[in-house]
Amino acid sequence: MSVQMYRYPVRFYVLSALIPWAFWAVAAYFSRLDNSSDYGLAISSFGLLGLCGPIFVAAFFFLKDRDLLEDLKGRIFNFQETKKIYIVITLLIMPASILLAMAISLLFGYSADQFTLAEQLSFSSGFFPAWFFLLLAPALEELAWHSYGTDCLRQRFNLFNTSIIFSFFWVIWHVPLAFIEGYYHNNLVLEGLIYNLNFTISLFVLVFLMNWLYYKTGRNVLVPIIIHMAANTFNEIFSTHPDSKVIQTGLLLIICMVVVYKERDLFFKRESFAT
Questions:
Q1: Secondary structure string (H, E, C) spanning the chain
Q2: In angstroms, rounded to a whole number, what is the distance separating the alpha carbons of residues 201 and 224?
Q3: Could you state, in order of their start, the residue ranges of all structural domains in the chain?
Q4: pLDDT at site 105
Q5: Which stretch of 67-76, 155-164, 217-226 has the lowest confidence by average pLDDT?
Q6: Which pLDDT score is estimated for 123?
Q7: If pLDDT is split at 50, 70 and 90, which confidence band does 273 have?
Q8: pLDDT given at position 40
């Protein structure tokens, strides 16, 4: 099926921003009260509802159009015609890049203790365990971004511009999370400009790599879910120094530039959907 059937990018992205922001504004309010500990369940619940916002929007469009729903069913777990190399890259690119980044950091005097498992995650999530959000968020997000969101941009733009536009949106989409006390993005703000800039660049790089593999695997929605989940997990499972995450972004940026150059037809021709 052609992505031309995914016709409502403005509606999708406006609703996918406003609905989460409304819920996260409430969560931020409760998190900043003097007795915020009494509202742990409310903070977590509104945070979770915000994460679910985009997938509710995507579901609305799919339930209105039987053809779109059939298209989604046919590609969500489709690995039959996928080259094995893309499956391998999907599974290994995030863990391999963070391990290599930590190894490189040793050359600059950073501790090998980074390779030990972290005793706890770098953020809290209120009532629910932090691991719950760490693993659930990628699935909820990508079931929206790569079920409807990417294709509805792709029907108007080439893949390069689609990736750029979505990356800007995704960076802005995360901003309200920085106001929820204890959340990852709130802690990130406190770490300083360099690490915030690294997070921003890492989102751009992640989008390009996910979109590349998404189309190379026949628009398989499970692929970006795996990559996003691995990115979250392997940046938390080890005692990684923040500077090693900067190195990882640099490594992935180099890979991304090579991919875009090698796959020029895929990224710059509107009609290209080659797998």
A1: CCHHHCCCHHHHHHHHHHHHHHHHHHHHHHHCCCCHHHHHHHHHHHHHHHHHHHHHHHHHHHHHCHHHHHHHHHHCCCCCCCCHHHHHHHHHHHHHHHHHHHHHHHCCCCCHHHHCECCCCCCCCCCCCHHHHHHHHHHHHHHHHHHHHHHHHHCCCCHHHHHHHHHHHHHHHHHHHHHCCCCHHHHHHHHCHHHHHHHHHHHHHHHHHHHHHHHHCCCCCHHHHHHHHHHHHHCCCECCCHHHHHHHHHHHHHHHHHHHHHCHHHHHCCCCCCC
A2: 18
A3: 3-268
A4: 98
A5: 67-76
A6: 65
A7: low
A8: 87
Is 0.85 topped by the overall pTM? yes
Residue 132, pLDDT score: 78
Residue 203 tokens, joined? 């989102």
Of 196, 184, 206, which Cα lies nearest the Cα of 131? 184
